[in-house]
Amino acid sequence: MANPNLMPLEDALDHLLSKAPVVTEIETVDLADSLGRVLAENHYVPADVPPADNSAVDGYALRKQDLHGDRPMPVSARIPAGEAPKPLEPDTAARIFTGSEIPEGADSVVMQERVEVTDAGILVLAEVDEGQNIRRRGQDLTRGDLALAKGTQVRPNEMGLLASMGVARVAVLARLKVAILSTGDELVDPGTPLGPGQIYNSNRFTLMGLLTQAGCNVVLCETLRDKREATRETLLRAAESADLIITSGGVSVGEEDHVRAVLEESGSLSLWKMAIKPGKPVAFGAIGGTPVLGLPGNPGSVLVTFLMVGMPYIRKRQGRNLKPLSGERIPADFAIASPSVRREFVRARKETRGSGSAVAAYPNQSSGILSSTCWADGLAVVPENTTVSPGDLLTYYSFSELLS
Ligand code: AMP
Ligand code: MG
User: Fold this and answer.
1) Where in the numbering of this chain does the MoaB/Mog domain appear (predicted)?
2) Which atom of ligand 1 has the smallest separation from the CA of 204?
3) One CATH from 3.40.50.970, 2.60.40.420, 2.40.340.10, 1.10.287.3510 for 328-403
4) Which side of the chain, N or C, has fewer Cβ within a 10 Å radius?
């Protein structure tokens, strides 16, 4: 049964994605610096690639109709790659190499392994099909076609394709500028000894890593004390430089949860008890015109809510063409006896079992357990109100897919 006070993940995402302004600022970078960036414009092919017919092998270029039985064919030219060939003399062949341009008049290339070289010329030892071993002009990219669409994220593959078209500088969308604010009087940075009641601030580093890997620019990273005025001042200051503020902690309904209170007083706030586990309290609002995503405080919840809620939102704001997650269906290697009204994202990993695979769960799924996230390679989804027995098929998302 659905709990009316818990918001389904899909509804929260619909709301978030409807309020996700895409970065508008464009910058031009060297192709060498374009990895991971999002194309700000369509790339049409300026000229055919390859620019001319060329040989796919090392061998001999000739005209098929000039071949006569076992009569040797004189070799009249040599065409290294990088040189413009002269037209082929009739009844002769040209020595040619992989990537060399096909001379006018030739219609086929015979591999050198299929040829016997004699003093009088070459003897072709195999059947020749007209057009064989020729890579046609424009067979990779044809002038005028759309090669890469705006919104494509540049992988090494796209870097190569852009280079093949002669693109040296690329217009990309600016990186999303994100501020990370960790809240909590108990937090201390690594490097400082812990006093009584203190713990190390781990969320700050988890979020820094996630955002960097997602191609964002972390412009501000501060720890907020549980004080109303300091929280307000820092949120307003962060809003001046950031496109997005991500907070951790302080969004429950306790009296020390000042992020929630400041957004209500000085900005706007939708607070959701989301129907996911871990990660119930997630806030979304704005201050000083800058959107604020308020994640829970527990470290395990931070990772799960960032990946399941934050990443789709960030991808949209980055202007990336969105592909739905595909995941994998894998049999469970664990059991969950008591069903939950919340959809559970189990910190899990895919393991080999005989000739197949199974998804194993970290034994302690408590939301404060960070070691589970290092043991795991992804998240297995247990639907709402469902028990799990070993062998049941579950959807499994790898961390790399969730962060892609
Ligand atoms: P809160 O939502 O602020 O009540 O925090 C929930 C739990 O997460 C508490 O146990 C906090 O101590 C812990 N927590 C909050 N922020 C962090 C952080 N940045 N790093 C590690 N643990 C945190
Ligand atoms: Mg707190």
Assistant:
1) 179-316
2) 19
3) 2.40.340.10
4) N
